[in-house]
């Protein structure tokens, strides 16, 4: 599975709080997925982060 954050991100920080192994805020206060492909042991947390994004900016593929 691969995760990307699209330009709808409003920088709320929820994804980083839920799954810091994958998502981190960059210097523009926008989230980025730093760990691709997503390791199996954090897949569930990644999915939860995507579901919790208030603007559905996290795209999961694969
Ligand atoms: S939860 Fe969504 S809006 Fe919030 S920082 Fe992450 S990608 Fe951006």
From TrEMBL:
Pfam families: Fer4_13
UniProtKB keywords: Electron transport, Iron, Iron-sulfur, Metal-binding, Transport
Reported function: Ferredoxins are iron-sulfur proteins that transfer electrons in a wide variety of metabolic reactions.
The protein, known as: Ferredoxin
Gene3D superfamilies: 3.30.70.20
The keyword rRNA-binding is annotated on this UniProt entry: no
PROSITE patterns per the UniProt record, alphabetical: 4FE4S_FER_1 (PS00198), 4FE4S_FER_2 (PS51379)
GO molecular function, one term: iron ion binding
InterPro entries, per the entry: 3Fe4S_ferredoxin, 4Fe4S_Fe-S-bd, 4Fe4S_Fe_S_CS, Fe-S_cluster_ET
Domain 4Fe-4S ferredoxin-type: 1-28
PANTHER family: FERREDOXIN (PTHR36923:SF3)
């Amino acid at each position: 599975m691969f995760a990307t954050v699209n330009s709808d991100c409003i920088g709320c920080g929820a994804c980083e709080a839920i799954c810091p192994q994958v998502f981190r805020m960059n210097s523009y206060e926008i989230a980025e997925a730093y760990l691709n492909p997503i390791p199996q042991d954090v897949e569930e947390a990644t999915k939860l982060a995507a579901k919790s994004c208030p603007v559905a900016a996290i795209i999961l593929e694969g």
